[in-house]
Amino acid sequence: MRRLLSLCRSAFSYKTTTNYKPSCFPTQQTRVQNLSASNKMADLTGINHRMLKTNGINMHVAEKGDEGAPIVLLLHGFPDLWYSWRHQISALASLGYRAVAPDMRGFGDTDAPTDARSYTYGHLVGDLVGLIDELGAHQVFVVAHDWGAMVAWWFALFRPDRIKAMVSMSVPFTPRNPKMKPLDMLRGFYGDDYYICRFQVPGEIEAEIAEAGGAEKLLRKVYSYRTPGPLMLPKGALEDVPPYPDWMSNDEITYYQDKFNQTGFTGGLNYYRALNLNWEITAPWTKAQVKVPVKFMVGDLDLTYNGPGVKDYLNNGGMKKDVPLLQDVVVLPGVGHFLQHEKPDLITDHIYDFITKF
Description:
With 358 residues, the chain is α/β, with parallel strands linked by helices. Helices cover 40% and strands 15% of the residues.
């Protein structure tokens, strides 16, 4: 049915759509044992798991599809795992693609360096280039969400030759501001209780998570957040948090809580702790354009979409100037930040509709 719908759609053009309907390293032995146990719990038929060496780290990869099929590389964000793409992995494989979803550096069963200086865009993009080489491919489709999208934008800037086309979700391209470091800008907009600012001191938020009872509290706080505004995290905010959203299954909740209780959050938090460092070392790419074909999607309840100036940038041509091959901006009504969790079939349709054009 998706193939038929794709063939019946008109030629693709740039547009905005607002109402679319259709901490430590485990040993290798421990890592494999934990991976096996997690996969049995997830019970995801046909998805294969393996560990690959890339850019000096061990990376866990979940994949499904014929080895010679076009690769769709699925990149998750925070606080997420390969598991967030489980629906898309199976669907894309059934449609003739090889879907590959790694646990990103710092997450899940992939190595997690404790030093934030090991989370520069050079490291993170290097992981992906090495992964693609290990997969035996030259170019891939990239589908990315949240921090995965941030990394994907820099992947497209550093190595556009390795990307056929890209679907980016939730986090739009952010041109480097040469006059202000990102943390200074965020503190100026939102103050010290803004969640990214609260993540900066190593060990501080980790201790608060532990005191509040473990991974469940932070996961519930983040996944339940659907307010179209900044996520504030003052001290004590994890003591009383809302329940998980209805779209999270018990299996999903169990998988995430077990995995993050096992690994902690330091690896993922280091992405935020490297923001200013990344700003410093990416100065040569100031005013650089992303020159790969892109489709961007965001929910209208997403805090990122409701940030200062974002709607105007997306809907009035600003991002098109920075991403000249931007072909579609889709704003999904009534959808929050975690699109691929909340609307898995719709997101799969959007991905497939775009990548079949290349």
